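Example 5.3 — Tryptophan 2-monooxygenase
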Amino acid sequence: MQRRKFLKETFSKLPIPFITPVLLSSACNKETINPSSKSVLIIGAGISGLAAAKKLKETGFQVKVLEAQGRIGGRLRTNRSLGIAFDEGASWIHGIDKNPITTLAQEAGMTTAFTDDDSKKSFDIGGIVRSTILYDKTEDEYYSMLESLMKNGSANESFEAVFNKMYPTKINDRLWKFFLSTYLTFDTGDLDKLSSTLYDEGEVFNGVETISINGYDTIPTYLSKGLDIQLNQRVTKIDYSNAKVQVFHGGNISEADYVLVSVPLGVLKANTINFIPTLPNSKQNAIQKIGMSCVNKFLLTWNTAFWDNVQYISYTPEIRDKFNYFVNLKKAQPNVNALMTFAYANYARQTEKMSDAQIIDEIMAHLKDMYGNNIPKPTNMLRTKWGGNENSFGSYSFTAVGTEMQHFEDLAEELNDRLFFAGEHTEVDYFSTAHGAYLSGIREADKIINLL
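Solution (predicted structure tokens):
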């Protein structure tokens, strides 16, 4: 799945800055560093927190990680209950060239497979196979629209509002709904909340897309080796008013010289952590203004495959954001008869109130329209509910109406050289991605190291 695919297509001529972990870790080479007497508490055992913890521990700090859940990984979560590695969060390495996740995945033992965006088949309602010519022509028009729409946008208007004014004849076009849903909403957030001027923000790495085969959780497992991680320790309060920062968690109080908060933006929005003193207005404003997207994933298995032997199967229903894209896992794993599909934005949130049986019926209605009423029922289904998950309250950040790019910088700003913040929502260039989360952890570790 080509995350931010429109950026690659439309803005490929722009220079893409890259910060390598080697450059970020240059501070570790200082011979004068003596961090063994300094302690760091890291809140959250997702990829950003673990990346920071690993680097700080290797530098000599006393490091402890507090994790609210009974497992590590955060939104890098893999479900193997069906004998398949179903990545509930991140699945792809988005552009493997110079992407830090590429090397990290190799070190962690992750196996990956190339996913070919050109291996696709598109169906309209009634099982009508859409011509490749029409699909490609509309895709080109879609990219051209993305180039021009921001010129007509404004800070207080959503992408959807501006699009509807500029392209009224395309509002109900099912193929256009598909592109707006799977190519844009999936990569950003709710179109009625997405900024009409900042939807193109964020940098990308070049190279092909690869999907994890044996599970993205191999990365947090690798990063966590040798770390002191305390599970089931939900943090409720952080007092950074004194020289030592106090963290209240699971009925306990821990102290440290430095504290790194790496919880998702959705958790910060929910105000489940009480900060003393209260966070500065700039940070509170950033938490409020940056959007939090919701994408839910669904894996269905069968005894035999009945679908086309292509990587991606698209379907264009009347309702946008509803089970309109299917990833054929059999392409990368021949012995696996499984499809993965998605729900985005408000429809994704609606699915969290639906039963498994209702979900299967809705997905099967689309598959039956494409492949006939006699296709078999799935043997199993797995699903996610990221919107209501108290450990994330959403999937990833996006540039909503009212967002300014400075807000990402404000979220990354340390307080009193004692309280630090990491996570994809703190990476102005790579927000909403796993590699952005990883780079943020390295960035904050370097900040702490450079204080010595």
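Remark. Residues 1-30 have pLDDT under 50 and may be disordered.
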